[in-house]
Design goal:
CATH topology of the largest domain: Elongation Factor Tu (Ef-tu), domain 3
Largest sheet: 7 strands, antiparallel
Order of helices and strands: EEEEEEHEEEEEEHEH
CATH class of the largest domain: Mainly Beta
Helix content: 10-25%
Mean pLDDT: 94
């Protein structure tokens, strides 16, 4: 489980795509990987993955076909900046919101605009997720916990404060770029109950 409070300054340093599987190595800071162990969970752009190997400043993961199909990693390239987050400690402070690391879909940036010191992003809502995104609710974009400013007409908006712009890869998004979306886990359960459970 994660909180959506990511660390910046990481990038893809090695990438091997074989049909619908991916092996990826990420370079990050030694402080981020302190006490890392094989088998630990790390979220990369919001996707929970398992550490298979590591060095003092790198870690390697493998993605199965389901992850390939549901995330933006199928378009990844060496050098891409990524947001990373270690799994939460039970003894730690809980901030952000509950993020599982299970991506619901990829969505596209519709527009971006500066509003004083904030950067506002407007993104498309997939039809099957329209009942899981609401104004003042929470979403995770590339693993970043954000508050929905408004949601209407199959679109929603979020705002990035200067810290988020500097510490994540969201500020570099251009119109048409895809991001990984995870809706609020509470919204999933409410939506499922309203339609009568799993189908």
């Amino acid at each position: 489980m994660f909180s959506g409070l990511v660390s910046g300054g990481s990038h893809i340093s090695e990438l091997k795509i074989n049909q619908h599987t991916i092996k990826m190595t990420v370079t990050t800071s030694a402080s981020f990987l302190k006490d890392i162990q094989t088998g630990d969970s790390i979220a990369i752009n919001g996707c929970c993955l398992t550490v298979e190997a590591f060095t003092p400043t790198t870690f390697t993961v493998t993605m199965m076909p389901q992850t390939f199909k549901k995330t933006s990693f199928k378009n990844a390239q060496v050098g891409d900046a990524v947001n990373v987050e270690r799994a939460m400690l039970a003894s730690g402070r809980f901030e952000g919101h509950i993020v599982t690391g299970h991506i619901d879909d990829t969505i596209s940036l519709v527009s971006r605009q500066a509003n004083e010191n904030a950067l506002e992003l407007i993104l498309a809502i997939p039809k099957h997720l329209t009942n899981q995104i609401v104004s003042q609710g929470s979403v995770a974009l590339n693993g970043v916990s954000l508050t929905v400013m408004w949601a209407k007409d199959n679109q929603f908006a979020v705002g990035l404060i200067p810290h988020t712009q500097a510490e994540t890869n969201l500020a570099s998004l251009q119109v048409g770029d895809e991001v990984n979306l995870e809706t609020d886990i509470l919204a999933k359960y409410v939506a499922s109950n309203l339609k009568g459970g799993p189908k």
